[in-house]
Amino acid sequence: MIKLERSAEEERARLAGLTGDEYDEQWRRWRTASEAVQAAITAHAEATEASRYEVEQAVKCAVRHAQEDPAVE
Q1: Cys-Cys crosslink for 30: which of 11, 17, 21, 42, Cβ 3.0 to 4.6 Å?
Q2: Domain-by-domain residue ranges, the chain?
Q3: If you count DSSP H runs as helices and E runs as strands, how many of each does the chain have, helices first?
């Protein structure tokens, strides 16, 4: 899940400075990556009977505190 979240954050960061068709194409890449991490979080929470919110926050915290925000460069 951490790898998926990191990938989604990298795709989100690539939106910076894009416009028009390039933005739309990159936004679709980010959305696909984001949907993948959300699905993995949901599946894990259901499998472990954990709070989905807590799983998501733990994943986001692990990624965002392990490295600086890739959108801020």
Answers
A1: 11
A2: 2-66
A3: 3, 0
- Residues 1, 50: contact at Cβ < 8 Å? no
Nearest to 13 by CA among 52, 64, 51, 61: 64
Report whether 28 contacts 8 (CB < 8 A).
no
Residue burial 53-64, b: 16+ Cβ < 10 Å; e: rest: eebbeebbeebe
If residue 24 lies in a helix (H) or strand (E), which one and from where to where? helix 20-48
Band of pLDDT at residue 65, cut at 50, 70 and 90: confident
Q: Is the pTM of this model over 0.85?
A: no
Q: What is the pLDDT of residues 8-29, one digit of tens each?
A: 999 999 999 999 999 999 999 9
